[in-house]
Amino acid sequence: MLDAEFLARLGTIVLIDLMLAGDNALVIALAVRSLPRRQQLYGRIFGTMGAVVLRIALITITTFLLSVPFLKLVGGLLLIWIAVKLVRPDSEEGKDVKPGTSLRSAIWIIIVADLVMSLDNVLGVAAAAHGDMTLVVIGIAISIPIVVWGSGFLARLMARFVWFIWLGGAVLGYVAGDMALSDEAVNRWIGGSAALHRVVPLALALLLFALGWWLARHRRGGVHGNAAVVRD
Q: Which of 50, 75, 52 is nearest to 64 (CA)?
């Protein structure tokens, strides 16, 4: 477990969990906001426990399905789309979640919403783990408490250091490229080229980081332009 590759993959899983669980943390906060303070804590704990169990089950199923030819290629393309969504400013997910009226309803809302919203997280973690469920369990065990109790700090961190979001997109881009090229059918098609296995994931990582920077710069330019129009 102290192997360098194991630790690198563990770090990747934790980062993916943190980057893609922001909306899940928002759902948790919204679902319990109408409960008494003590029940809010119970709602966060038990709702998150149920969501974690379901997520591990989904990752296990996804890992098995990724052994089917060309599904890793499809999964890699889907991860690229998820990475583009991540680095795009102003995500609106999670805004319409209604608060729970009781502890039981809040727990149910958290579990169901996490199940619906966790496709990106499940796919990213399954791709980074390469079938190692020990990595999956440890990674989720580290990241989930941070998301549940540190979601406010995480949101401030992302707002203050926008490059942190671009870094998450870059990591997803790298994992997507590695996942697509590890598909047996694709590997046979490219002749097992070691150069492509090194270059493609790195190129996708740099592309996603650059895309995040460009979108943020373009948005700032648009905001300043609109402000100038208003002043006129």
A: 75
Rounded to two decimals, the pTM is 0.66
For position 22, what pLDDT does the model report? 60
Question: Which tens digit of pLDDT belongs to each residue from 23-41?
Answer: 566 667 667 776 787 787 7
Rounded-to-integer distance, Cα 106 and Cα 88, Å: 30
For the stretch 59-64, contacts whose Cβ atoms lie closer than 8 Å and that sit 24 or more positions apart, written own/partner, are: 59/122, 59/125, 59/126, 59/129, 59/133, 59/136, 60/133, 60/136, 62/122, 62/123, 62/126, 63/126, 63/129, 63/131, 63/133
d(CA 48, CA 66): 26
Tokens of 52: 């974690």
pLDDT digits (tens, 9 = 90+) for 218-227: 876 655 555 4
Residues 6+ apart with CB under 8 A from 2: none
Separation between Cα atoms, residue 147 and residue 26, nearest integer Å: 9
Which residue type, as a one-letter code, is found at position 137?
A: V
Residue whose tokens read 């098995």 = 64
**184-197 pLDDT, tens per residue?**
888 788 776 778 88
Helix/strand/coil percentages in the chain, nearest 5 = 80, 0, 20
